[in-house]
Design brief:
The chain has helices at 8-21, 34-43; strands at 2-3, 26-27. The longest helix has 14 residues, at 8-21. A two-stranded parallel ribbon has the order 1-2. 44% of the residues lie in helices and 7% in strands. By secondary structure, the chain is mainly alpha-helical. The chain has one domain (2-43). The protein contains two helices and two strands, in the order E-H-E-H. The protein starts with a strand and ends in an 11-residue tail after the last helix.
Length: 54
Amino acid sequence: MLIATAGLAVETYQKLFTAKTGLRVVAVDSDNPALPIKAHVEAGYLTVDVLDIG
C-alpha cells in the first residue's frame, strides 16, 4: 500500500494496518504524487492500491 502523505497519524495507521493485514505500507511524501504513479503506469509496473492526491 502506498500513502502519499506523512505524519504521526499515518505512522500509527501504517502500524495498525500492517499488524492486522500483514501488508506493508509505504508512505510517500511528494509535491505531485501523480508523477510517480504516471511513470509506474507507463512502465506497466503499477504498485499503487490506494492514494489521496486531493
